[in-house]
Write a structure and sequence with these properties.
CATH superfamily of the largest domain: P-loop containing nucleotide triphosphate hydrolases
CATH architecture of the largest domain: 3-Layer(aba) Sandwich
Largest sheet: 5 strands, parallel
CATH class of the largest domain: Alpha Beta
Number of domains: 2
Number of strands: 9
Order of helices and strands: HEHEHEEHEHEEEHEHHHHH
Strand order of the largest sheet: 2-5-8-1-9
Distance between the termini: 35 Å
Radius of gyration: 22 Å
Number of helices: 11
Oligomer: single chain
Helix content: 40-55%
Length: 264
Amino acid sequence: MSESSYLDWNNSIEILNKAFDANLFVIIIGPKGTGKTSLVRDFARSKGIKLESINFSLRTRESHLVGTKTLTDGNVSFEEGILIKSMREGTMLYLDEINSAEADVLLRLDEALDDRRQIALKESTGEVVKAKEGWFVVATINPLTHSGTKELPPQLLSRFPVRISMEYPPEDIELEIIKKYVSGDFESELIQGIKLANTLRQAAAVEELFYSPSLRETIAFGKLLDKGVSAKEAATIVFGNVYTQWGNIEHQKVKDIITSMFGN
């Protein structure tokens, strides 16, 4: 099976289809590395829709969404941003980690997402741009426990009436996902890797550890096994060494967990 094939273990594709048909915008809520972006990409592919995306951060500005004036050969022109282009073309717009954006950016975005689906280009001619019929918007947010995230304003949250919760999949589903990326027969090792990841996730959830490994990391663990790396070494490389960022005590905690699961 190809790496691009998304395993829809919690019926999210059907929810997105219903929202698309009902012309309702969607927000997907969950921690990093649970497959939110893979879900959105797979859905756009399944519908044959062009996907435009922007990843929000503290550096995202209104100009990234709406556009900015440019000077070329002495001529001033206006280069439209991704939001305006998507509205004009009626593409699918993916707003990734929207709750990492600054308030002024969210306020401008809110203007385009209300029931009128339009925005005034005050930076340029003042033209009111109306979204092409079929314009579809999906946003993602990370839990407030993630650094850099903020609570979305209620009025903006209300623009996304369809909400999908994405958590880490059950262990048997995570195993099936990883197997799509691995050619060798490492089922018992993969099961151990997933159990390790879940142990670390649970410890992070109660603030015993500073970091929670994502689905990307269990996939990386499987890929290293496929390249001949031993299970313990792969676990150390993928799951253990990152904790050195928080000092020796944190790192030693995780090393001890890895040793208890994979031996000396």
